[in-house]
Design a protein that fits this description.
The protein is an alpha+beta fold. It folds into two domains: 39 residues; 57 residues, IHF-like DNA-binding proteins (HU Protein, Chain A). The chain contains three helices and five strands, in the order ααβββββα. The strands form two sheets. A three-stranded antiparallel beta sheet has the order 1-2-5. Strands 3-4 form a two-stranded antiparallel sheet. A hairpin with a 6-residue loop joins strand 3 and strand 4.
Length: 107
């Protein structure tokens, strides 16, 4: 799903909201998450997951075209860790037990 599809789904589920208002709210949420991560912070969305920033140490590398050695600088990369609730929803499993959820067949 891309951003425009998300906006459309929210608009379909909430016909009383204007599309531009939904886009504004989503843009504000994403801007706050981005700003917090840029400052080295952590964003926790209960029931969904945690966004954080991980530091990658500088390391030696090589140019794949020429094979020349080079130094790769330190970088900071975003990281996402899914919540237990999200993992359970995706896998149909309660993580406290390893018994898979098997939906009843309609008979």
């Amino acid at each position: 799903m891309v951003r425009s599809e998300l906006v459309q789904r929210v608009a379909d589920d909430n016909p009383h909201l204007l599309r531009r208002d939904i886009e504004g709210v989503l843009n504000a949420i994403f801007a706050e998450i981005t700003a917090t991560l840029a400052q080295g912070g952590r964003v926790e969305l209960r029931g969904f997951g945690v966004f954080s920033v991980t530091r990658r140490d500088p390391r030696p590398g090589h140019n794949p075209k020429t094979g020349a050695p080079l130094q790769i600088d330190e970088t900071h990369v975003p990281k996402f860790r899914a919540s237990k609730k999200l993992l359970e929803r995706l896998n149909g499993v309660t993580l406290a037990s390893s018994t898979p959820h098997i939906p009843e067949s309609p008979t």
